[in-house]
Amino acid sequence: MPASEGSTHPPRRAVIAAVPAVLAAATVLDGCTSSPGHQPKTYRFFTSHQAAVVEDATARIAPGPADDPAEAGHPGAREAGVTGYIDTMLAAFSHGEGQPPRIFAGGPWSNRHTSGPDLMARFVPLDPLATVAWRTRITAWQDQYKKGIAALDKLAGGDFTRASHIKQDKILAAKSVSQFTSLLFEHTIEGLYASPEYGGNRGLAGWKDIAFPGDIQPRGYTPDEVERSDGHDPVQDTGIVADVLKLLGAL
Amino acid sequence: MTKAIVIGSGAGGSFAAMVLAQAGWRVTVFEKGPNHFTNLAGPGPFGTSFGNDSLAMIVRNYPGPDPEVFPRTWRPNDSAPAHYTGSVDELPQGVGGGTVHWDAKVPRFWDIDFQQHSALGPVTGADIADWPFTYQEIAPYYDEVEHLIGVQGDVTKLPDIVRKHAPRTHQYPMPPGPQMRSSLAVAAGAAALGLHPFPFPMAANSVSGYNGQHACNNCGFCSSFGCPVVARPSALVPLRQALRTGRVRLVPETMVTRVTLAGNKATGVSWVTMTGQGPVAGTETADVVVMAASAIETVRLALLSQFPDRSGRLGRRLMLHAFIDGSAIFLDERMHAHRGRSVTQCAEDAVDPDYPGARAFAKAHGLPYLRGGLMELGGSQDPISEAQSYQTLLGFVRASKPFGTEFKQLMRSSVLRDRLAGCSLIGHDLPYLTHTVTLDPTVKDVFGLPVARVTWSAGPHEQVAQQFWIPKLKQMMKQAGAGVALAVPATLNSGGVPTGNHVMGGMMMGTSPATSVTDGYGRVHGLDNVYVADGSVFVTSGAHNPTNTIMAVALRNMRHLAGS
Predict the structure, then answer these.
(1) Under CATH, what is the fold of the domain B150-223+323-382+417-427+457-497?
(2) CB contacts, 8 Å: A108 with chain B
(3) ipTM at complex level
(4) What's the predicted TM-score (pTM) here?
(5) How far apart are CA B10 and CA B293, in angstroms?
């Protein structure tokens, strides 16, 4: 499409299947604490124990192969680096002198499906009002994490990470921590499916598991890709999928 | 040289600035939010910090306003104080206003919308009135807006009902771009039901070079997203023309807090901006003040400025559209709605009060008529929004363990994203004196000013129209081959808080100061030099995306003001 014809646009590749080839490049980020395939060794906000609790808890919310044999081949929160995402967010204002807070990735594109620099890796400086708003919000989240992690530990008799999976599930489902579990779930979702510049979705693990190509500029899609049918592809409507469809169908 | 202050740089304010500056006026444009663009005043293409970034745009609210510093409150009716504080039908706060994140759909209101009282008669309990002009008078301004901002569409594909009620003499400036699979699938269902779908007119370049901008490349991040290639320049086109006169000063990150009045004249405005050291306030004088902060914020500013209100209608008749959210779930095919321009087909059959059966249904429910609205056929949501939907649903179907492997199974099934084709209906919203914007008595913004309190819920007409059209939407989706078809009032998904980003009314135009807030050209009754150029002047809500109508009305009224 003609958007790539402008002199400011780098050349684009022809096929969306170029995703795997650029995985490594996509996760080498400007000043990011994480590196492909490994959890960051140090955290900016969490203590190592707090990070371990968050990692185990988010892995119960979105399990990967290490957490549930049924998820073999399907990376989860642990593999996608969700804990790193949350730590990056809670320390958004502590990424170094002169560094914009890690709230809004820049634009206009990452070049994930093309070649060229990742322009989303440069964060946008916050204006003074946004700074007020985000300092307030992040301070509140920091407090909720400190208290929430302590509450999970307490329900586990001291250390959440030493509880069995079944016990961990029960704790996360407990009424007394439901608000914190809900917050953890929201942030797990973001760490899995937000752009990797924010510190999660490592190696595009979250997107690949759901066959989502993510941001596509400046390549875009061809008219044929927009209009065509991708063909017969029936859903496995058993178990939870069937139950959800039944509920939706009854609305 | 006449000096004007324009408050807001969105759909209305950008046109006001252009018309007044081109007439030789000096103009200061105050914009509450930041500028996410570069090179607006210069020649050639311009850039943006917007990207295909769901976290920034959907979750973290990059387009603003941030409810942490600029909340609103909401209540369904005026029998109790507001019980909700947060985002209420917010439009983006920044240079370009709501047009930075819209998916730029530009259907026209119908002739009967501008003459709703004389064409359709009164409705008990509602405040139906005619606009101070007809469709025939506004049509050339629609043409001019379409030509200026660049619209794709095909006049030969418009169905008879649209040609009849919104006749046009010109072909669209650009042909329609490719049609999304999800839109075509649902459009087939619509056609099978006897409806008349057609390519949705849209203010996005389908050819490269229009306005010097790139063509849309169908990246899929359209509605709710800033366009990374600026193929949808919208209000920035007139704003750039305004800036290029050399007579316009654009002041972002600055909120007007009061229009200062002396008797029946405005002398200028008071403003405030936030700095790293705290708020800094100031004033600026002008000969004319044009308010274009969007319906809810313009009313708030009028109330903060203690405008006269002889008609008792200032802040009343707020219209937000009573949306129906429809979802067609295809169990045998992935519809890949992440490729395309959010939605590319629409149907206007449900806008018609004379749709077969509608009059009888209305009569059986004590109404003279009912109107649904434009149906947006196709489109879906992003993975983060999809995942949030499953988080909610798991709370219902797996209360004892609402997370885990089953969450990931749902994500891979993608019944609420890749297999989804949306079908929303933009429900016509009658004007009621009880639907209002007032100043909240307790909640303040970051600067200590009372926030807007919205009082709105679907009225009697809207509820009956939903009862009539929801089964038809479901039938249409089933005809399209959807395995599961659901359609519910959008407020059911939001706990009652209005959604949809279509805000109109509060400063209605009219010829009599006894029954309207602004005159036939948007001048505030009782004030000699204060004009309104946004959706707050609307008299009725149409049943369509309202932004190009905001632009056309602003163009007409500002031409009158400038004498051009």
Answers:
(1) Cholesterol Oxidase; domain 2 (3.30.410)
(2) 47-51, 228-229
(3) 0.96
(4) 0.94
(5) 8
